[in-house]
């Protein structure tokens, strides 16, 4: 599903020799990768570098759902909406429509009536996703990876059977198998998607006109991202949240700020309101809530999570242990319960991030083929929610520090105090850091700001390398810059630690 993270960096930009420079695998060692998403194609590239013979089985297209229906298209849609968010600041910055010197020209806020051609927007993002998928395929084939189109299933612990699109069946003997099966949108039996009015996030890109009134069921990352994007594009949006606030799993201060921004921009947020059903009406949809209220709109997006694509493909018969939720059980080097079978990505339920899937795939192949490997460290994973403003996090969250009784110091600096933010008319956002009260080590951080996904990297480095607040505070930052607030927050923490 669309998640609070970008896909791994475009692997087509790098080059690897066709003949691996460091051969580790035994001659003829065959790796079969079931699923061509970030976990799958990154694993395939590593396996080839280590000297294995590699076959990737993918039924949808290289890049998987992350590239074709989830991360790439959703973030492209959000990036398009971002331009309208920027345009909202035009009047404040002294930009007005009309001819230069025309004193009769109305303020830009009154004159601007941006017309969103949703069909053109969706055509562009679908084309971008297809191009990215083609680039990944070309890269894999250039490196000597065999790509088979079809659906893979296990026939025991060392054989993959591929049901081809043309009705053919191919059996592949494998020395190592990587399962990168992904996940699909979770649906409700009382709100069955029809692809026209009742939609999952993979079906939104088929729309040719902007929804007049979009009801979004689910206030997690996916629901919040699409609700914010469509509200900016011009739809009247109703966000139905079964919890007390939007983004219930995120930093409370960040979630409350974002919900305030949503409401200020005209979005209707229905908190503590669980959707019971959704059905078509004569000219739209009607969503019935658990308390009996009925919310009417033109379209409804069901964004209530995802389910792993693990059933009915021979996993349990081969001995691969699944959790109650259907996810594949893996350890920190991506091993499953069966020797020689590994798993990566959303099917494992570790973290639904493309970056984590890619790391799991790379780690799995390094371990399977005898290369140096380090266990997956989730404490250093940076994540981002692509709303406006964005919310980026890394390291320990404040909720986790509190729940486990950890001692910590924290500070929060409003973005509005930053000189660069003032220049751009940015008011909504903040930088928050957490540190150990004695050692001063940076434990985690939250950035709420436009392009927070770019700004969080210094904090990620600090958390990954156990830097102290003094290390961060004493590093040079550009003046003026938004990253200056990170260094300033560290200086404030230094004062708290030293009592100055």
From TrEMBL:
<feature type="binding site">
    <location>
        <position position="305"/>
    </location>
    <ligand>
        <name>NAD(+)</name>
    </ligand>
</feature>
<feature type="binding site">
    <location>
        <position position="346"/>
    </location>
    <ligand>
        <name>FAD</name>
    </ligand>
</feature>
<dbReference type="Pfam" id="PF02852">
    <property type="entry name" value="Pyr_redox_dim"/>
</dbReference>
<dbReference type="GO" id="GO:0050660">
    <property type="term" value="F:flavin adenine dinucleotide binding"/>
</dbReference>
<feature type="binding site">
    <location>
        <begin position="218"/>
        <end position="225"/>
    </location>
    <ligand>
        <name>NAD(+)</name>
    </ligand>
</feature>
<keyword id="KW-0285">Flavoprotein</keyword>
<dbReference type="Pfam" id="PF07992">
    <property type="entry name" value="Pyr_redox_2"/>
</dbReference>
<feature type="domain" description="Pyridine nucleotide-disulphide oxidoreductase dimerisation">
    <location>
        <begin position="382"/>
        <end position="489"/>
    </location>
</feature>
<dbReference type="InterPro" id="IPR001100">
    <property type="entry name" value="Pyr_nuc-diS_OxRdtase"/>
</dbReference>
<keyword id="KW-0520">NAD</keyword>
<feature type="domain" description="FAD/NAD(P)-binding">
    <location>
        <begin position="30"/>
        <end position="361"/>
    </location>
</feature>
<protein>
    <recommendedName>
        <fullName>NAD(P)H dehydrogenase (quinone)</fullName>
        <ecNumber>1.6.5.2</ecNumber>
    </recommendedName>
</protein>
<keyword id="KW-0547">Nucleotide-binding</keyword>
<dbReference type="InterPro" id="IPR036188">
    <property type="entry name" value="FAD/NAD-bd_sf"/>
</dbReference>
<comment type="similarity">
    <text>Belongs to the class-I pyridine nucleotide-disulfide oxidoreductase family.</text>
</comment>
<dbReference type="GO" id="GO:0008753">
    <property type="term" value="F:NADPH dehydrogenase (quinone) activity"/>
</dbReference>
<dbReference type="InterPro" id="IPR016156">
    <property type="entry name" value="FAD/NAD-linked_Rdtase_dimer_sf"/>
</dbReference>
<dbReference type="InterPro" id="IPR023753">
    <property type="entry name" value="FAD/NAD-binding_dom"/>
</dbReference>
<keyword id="KW-0560">Oxidoreductase</keyword>
<feature type="binding site">
    <location>
        <position position="75"/>
    </location>
    <ligand>
        <name>FAD</name>
    </ligand>
</feature>
<dbReference type="InterPro" id="IPR004099">
    <property type="entry name" value="Pyr_nucl-diS_OxRdtase_dimer"/>
</dbReference>
<dbReference type="GO" id="GO:0050136">
    <property type="term" value="F:NADH dehydrogenase (quinone) (non-electrogenic) activity"/>
</dbReference>
<comment type="subunit">
    <text>Homotetramer.</text>
</comment>
<feature type="binding site">
    <location>
        <position position="152"/>
    </location>
    <ligand>
        <name>FAD</name>
    </ligand>
</feature>
<keyword id="KW-0274">FAD</keyword>
């Amino acid at each position: 599903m669309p998640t609070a993270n970008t896909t791994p960096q475009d692997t087509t930009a790098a080059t690897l020799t066709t003949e691996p420079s460091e051969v580790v695998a035994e001659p003829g060692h065959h790796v079969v990768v079931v699923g061509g998403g970030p976990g799958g194609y990154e694993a395939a590239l590593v396996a080839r570098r280590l000297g294995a013979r590699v076959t990737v089985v993918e039924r949808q297209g290289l890049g998987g759902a992350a590239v074709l229906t989830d991360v790439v298209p959703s973030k492209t849609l959000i990036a398009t909406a971002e331009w309208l968010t920027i345009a909202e600041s035009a009047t404040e910055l002294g930009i007005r429509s009309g001819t230069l010197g025309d004193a009769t020209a109305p303020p830009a806020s009154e004159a601007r009536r941006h017309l969103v051609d949703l069909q053109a927007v969706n055509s562009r993002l679908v084309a971008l996703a297809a191009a990215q998928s083609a680039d990944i395929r070309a890269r894999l084939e250039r490196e000597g990876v065999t790509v088979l189109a079809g659906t893979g299933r296990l026939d025991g612990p060392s054989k993959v059977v591929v049901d081809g699109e043309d009705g053919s069946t191919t059996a592949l003997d494998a020395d190592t198998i990587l399962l990168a099966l992904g996940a699909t949108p979770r649906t409700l039996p009382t709100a069955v998607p029809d692809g026209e009015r009742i939609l999952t996030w993979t079906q939104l890109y088929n729309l040719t006109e902007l929804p007049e009134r979009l009801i979004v069921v689910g206030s997690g990352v996916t629901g919040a991202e699409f609700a914010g994007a469509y509200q900016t594009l011009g739809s009247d949006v109703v966000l139905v949240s079964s919890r007390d606030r939007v983004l219930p799993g995120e930093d409370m201060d960040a979630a409350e700020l974002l919900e305030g921004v949503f409401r200020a921009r005209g979005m209707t947020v229905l908190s503590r309101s669980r959707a019971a059903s959704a059905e078509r009406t004569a000219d739209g949809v009607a969503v019935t809530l658990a308390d009996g209220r009925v919310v009417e709109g033109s379209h409804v997006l069901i964004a209530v999570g995802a389910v792993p694509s693990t059933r009915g493909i021979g996993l349990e018969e081969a001995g691969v242990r699944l959790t109650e939720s259907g996810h594949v059980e893996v350890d920190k080097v991506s091993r499953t319960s069966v020797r020689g079978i590994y798993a990566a990505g959303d099917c494992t339920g570790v973290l639904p991030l493309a970056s984590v899937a890619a790391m799991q795939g790379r780690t799995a192949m390094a371990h399977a083929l005898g290369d140096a490997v380090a266990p997956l460290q989730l404490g250093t994973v940076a994540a981002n929610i692509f709303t406006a403003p964005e919310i980026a996090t890394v390291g320990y969250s404040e909720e986790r520090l509190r729940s486990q009784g950890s001692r910590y110091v924290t500070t929060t600096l409003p973005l509005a105090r930053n000189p660069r933010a003032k220049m751009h008319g940015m008011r909504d956002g903040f930088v928050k850091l957490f540190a150990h009260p004695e050692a001063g080590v940076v434990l985690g951080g939250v950035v709420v700001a436009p392009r927070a996904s770019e700004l969080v990297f210094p904090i990620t480095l600090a958390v990954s390398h156990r830097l102290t607040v003094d290390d961060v505070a004493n590093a040079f930052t550009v003046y003026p810059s938004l990253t200056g607030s990170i260094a300033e927050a560290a200086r404030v923490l230094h004062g708290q630690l030293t009592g100055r």
